[in-house]
Design goal:
It is a single chain. This protein has 170 residues and is an alpha/beta fold. Helix content is 16%, strand content 28%. It contains two helices and 19 strands. The protein has helices spanning 2-16, 23-34; strands spanning 39-40, 45-46, 51-52, 58-60, 65-66, 71-73, 77-79, 84-85, 90-92, 94-95, 109-110, 113-115, 120-121, 126-127, 132-133, 138-139, 144-145, 154-157, 162-166. A seven-stranded mixed beta sheet has the order 2-5-8-13-16-18-19. Strands 1-4-7-12-15 form a five-stranded parallel beta sheet, with no helix packed on it. The longest helix is centred in the N-terminal third of the chain and has 15 residues, at 2-16. The N and C termini lie far apart (47 Å).
Length: 170
């Protein structure tokens, strides 16, 4: 099923790549992807140059938007409701293992990635295996999220990402 989902993802990207990124067409693209995603909410919007591998193992909430040039690779990735993912992001649930000589021929290890409800991943971010962005949080532009955090309504930034401050709403 994994190989079929990769081929299907490539097919959807290929046939819709030249369609403009209007909300209607991005929802249409998201609908096509959702046919192979095990758990996908409504109003899933995907920009034309997004690369998603292994659709079958994704969980996508409702009202999710993924901007151009974002790459999503791996198993056990969950993007909850009302998430915005900015341009040029990489989300990967796998990490390579060093065998004493190189990283090249060892099997990678996989761990979950969760992007919490109502969160915003700004442009040029990387999110790696084991990372959790809490609900209603912001991952600042250029940050690398490589571990789980649990403080909701917060801003995380840096390489590697760390808690910068809590977001106070009135």
């Amino acid at each position: 099923m994994r190989k079929i989902s990769i081929i299907y993802s490539w097919f959807v990207r290929t046939i819709t790549y030249f369609l403009p990124n209007t909300p209607f067409l991005m929802r249409f693209r998201g609908f096509l992807y959702s046919l192979m995603i095990r758990n996908c909410g409504r109003n899933f919007q995907v920009s034309s140059s997004v690369i998603i591998n292994s659709l079958f193992h994704l969980k996508i909430g409702s009202n999710v938007y993924i901007a151009h040039n974002t790459v999503i690779i791996g198993h056990n990735i969950q993007i909850k409701d009302e998430v915005i993912i900015g341009p040029n992001c990489v989300i990967s649930s796998g990490n390579h293992v060093f065998d004493g000589n190189s990283y090249r021929f060892r099997p990678s290890i996989s761990n979950k990635v969760i992007i919490g409800e109502g969160s915003w991943v700004a442009g040029n971010c990387s999110i790696t295996a084991g990372a959790i962005l809490p609900n209603k949080s912001i991952l600042a532009a250029g940050a690398v999220l490589n571990k789980p955090f649990n403080q909701e309504r917060s801003i995380y930034a840096g390489v590697p990402a760390k808690l910068i401050k809590s977001i106070v709403t009135s």
